[in-house]
Specification:
Blueprint (H helix, E strand, L loop, with lengths): L41 H12 L4 H8 L3 H11 L11 H10 L5 H8 L3 H10 L12 H13 L3 H8 L3 H11 L12 H12 L4 H10 L7 H10 L12 H13 L4 H6 L4 H10 L20 H10 L5 H8 L3 H10 L12 H12 L4 H8 L3 H10 L26 H20 L1
Helix pairs in contact: 2-3, 6-13, 7-8, 8-9, 9-10, 10-11, 11-12, 17-18, 19-22, 20-21
Length: 432
């Protein structure tokens, strides 16, 4: 296949227009009819299209044209018009959504409410609506599916566009006998469907390759398999902007502690995208539960106090062992608390001066590390960067001769005062 897949633009609502066909059966001979006063004339249809494109509500369009809401909604549906409305939801739309949700295809209901499919799913989750079963595919959904497979649009993006689960789109395409434009010639339809179905469950590429080989399909390299699956839509990394309804659903999840699964699966959002959006909306630290969506044991006040006191001073492995947690869990929670480890803290100008004074006056690297609250290895590396190697044979050797146990502890202030004390001694010798 020479044709490659392409990502959809962020504001695309549909891949191809679809006007429902009326099932009129056997039509009788045409007869002349009198002109109806309520017939739609071309000028009205043109004004309807313009108002619809300007994101006017159905009520506003009805007032503009002097028609009923039902008549305007029916004409919009007959014309096959679609858009992503940015207007707030009104009570009538919520009532219609609650009445018809799961009773008819979501794409059909979205067209009637003049909303995007993703907005409809997000609003349904906010209202606590559930789907007892999967409604049948509409003609519009099949049309988008056919064109998307023909043009090589990633499967996951087609799923987000029409509001269907990733695995559901794969099954429907298989039932329609569609072949994706990115499917190589040596892949059968059954192999592609099976590989995508396994990928939708989060199975690793190596495990997918082994599973396919065990089921009688050709042996695949995990790397080439991953590249092929990404072209077919798995792990797409699509930069689709967040809509108002999705933001509201994310805020609702943080306020009520609800699951993020609808955002990940139904709306096609990755965990990284959800974390990034939560940061952008300022939701970090506002979760109703103290530890947010974490599934592990909750950190107690005593554990956090121990972490604050020892982090950067005691080896992280020892802290994790004492707290009965993993090293990575300790590091993640320290990052959430805003703690900075000695290995990562930037050196200040005073610390650089203290290191130079210690090198000049024979203070040991261990004493410097204790005074600055850092690891001796970190002090040694940074001292080498600023030209003060503590193992340099040319380093001045004068230093304290008393045992360390009997000496006054070295501090940052005492290290900074070394140069001033040396200058006083020089002045005294000159005066003498």
């Amino acid at each position: 296949m020479t044709q490659t897949s392409f990502d959809l633009d962020a504001d695309i609502v549909e891949l191809t227009p679809f006007i429902p066909e009326r099932d009129i059966g056997a039509t009788p001979p045409l007869v002349e009819l009198a002109f109806r006063a309520d017939a739609w004339i071309p000028d009205e249809i043109q004004r309807l299209r313009a108002a619809f494109a300007d994101d006017c509500t159905i009520d506003e369009i009805a007032i503009l044209l002097g028609r009923s809401r039902a008549g305007v909604a029916t004409r919009i549906h007959d014309l096959g018009l679609r858009r992503n409305s940015r207007r707030s939801w009104i009570a009538w739309e919520d009532e219609e959504l609650a009445r018809c949700y799961a009773q008819e295809p979501t794409a059909t209901l979205a067209a009637r409410l003049c909303r995007g499919v993703s907005a409809l799913y997000a609003r349904a989750q906010l209202l606590g609506l559930s789907e007892p079963g999967s409604p049948p595919y509409s003609g519009w959904e099949d049309a988008q599916l056919c064109v998307g497979y023909e043009k090589g649009v990633p499967v996951a993006q087609i799923a987000s566009l029409i509001g269907r689960p990733f695995a559901g789109v794969i099954s429907r395409a298989s039932a329609l006998g569609l072949r994706h434009a990115c499917q190589p010639d040596d892949w059968s339809d059954a192999e592609m469907t099976r590989a995508l179905a396994l990928a939708a469950t989060g199975t690793r590429y190596v495990a997918i390759a082994r599973a396919l080989a065990s089921e009688g399909f050709p042996a695949r390299n995990s790397r080439s398999l991953g590249q092929r699956l990404r072209k077919l839509g798995y792990g797409r990394g699509w930069g689709r902007p967040w809509i108002t309804e999705e933001d509201e659903l994310l805020r609702h999840a943080y306020t009520s502690g609800a699951s993020l699964t609808p955002l990940r699966e139904r709306l096609g959002r990755s965990p990284h995208s959800i974390r990034w959006r939560a940061e952008a909306l300022g939701l970090r630290g506002t979760h109703v539960r103290r530890d947010g969506f974490r599934q592990g044991p909750v950190w107690t006040v005593e554990e956090e106090a121990r972490l604050r006191a020892d982090y950067g001073k005691v080896p992280t492995r020892d802290i994790a062992k004492d707290l009965g947690r993993g090293v990575r869990a300790v590091l993640y929670h320290a990052n959430r608390l805003g703690l900075v480890h000695g290995f990562m803290r930037a050196f200040s100008a005073d610390e650089d001066s203290a290191i130079r004074n210690a090198w000049t006056h024979g203070v040991s690297m261990v004493d410097v590390a204790q005074a600055l609250g850092r690891d001796p290895a970190v002090i040694g590396k940074h001292a080498a960067r600023i030209g003060c190697r503590f193992n340099d044979p040319a380093r001045p050797s004068q230093g304290p001769t008393t045992p360390r146990a009997n000496r006054t502890p070295v501090t940052l202030q005492s290290l900074l005062a070394l140069n001033a004390a040396a200058a006083v001694d020089v002045d005294r010798s000159i005066a003498a």
